[in-house]
Amino acid sequence: MSLRLRGFPDHGFLLWFALSVGLVAWVAHLLFMAAAVGLVRDDGAFWVFHVANAVCAVLAALGLALSWLVYRAGTDPEDAGSAAGRLRFLGALGLLLNGINLLLIVTEGAYIFFIPVGR
């Protein structure tokens, strides 16, 4: 696998990052929040939840921004069968996936504002 940063958004690691970072951030959010419950209950480190929500939301938003760049780089319609059409399709797919995952992270993380500390 090559990074090919000069080839972005057409090839390389950044294109895959743009498409998958939201899903990975959402899964990490779920796993970390479930694993950190004991730490928060025992030590009272409630700020861990806030940091985890912020980091995961920023990662999903970064994927959203990169997907927007990929979408804008595609100049042909999605069904054109060209490289530019493929970019437009992948950008739209990344916008959809990252948008949904960002919404899931924010919605699932909103409960920390309604649970009193120490409960």
Considering the chains and any ligands shown, give keywords for the structure.
mainly alpha; single chain
Walk me through the structure.
The protein is mainly alpha-helical and 119 residues long. The protein has one domain. 71% of the residues lie in helices and 0% in strands. The chain has helices at 13-35, 37-43, 47-73, 83-109. Helix 1 packs parallel to helix 4 (83-109). The longest helix has 27 residues, at 47-73. 27% of the residues are buried. The mean pLDDT is 83.
Layout of helices and strands:
Elements: H1 13-35, H2 37-43, H3 47-73, H4 83-109
Helix pairs in contact: 1-3, 1-4, 3-4
Order of helices and strands: HHHH
Structural class: mainly alpha
- Say how many strands there are: 0
Low-confidence stretches: none
Query: How would you sum up the global shape?
Result: elongated
Compact description:
This protein has one domain (17-112). 71% of the residues lie in helices and 0% in strands. It has helices at residues 13-35, 37-43, 47-73, 83-109.
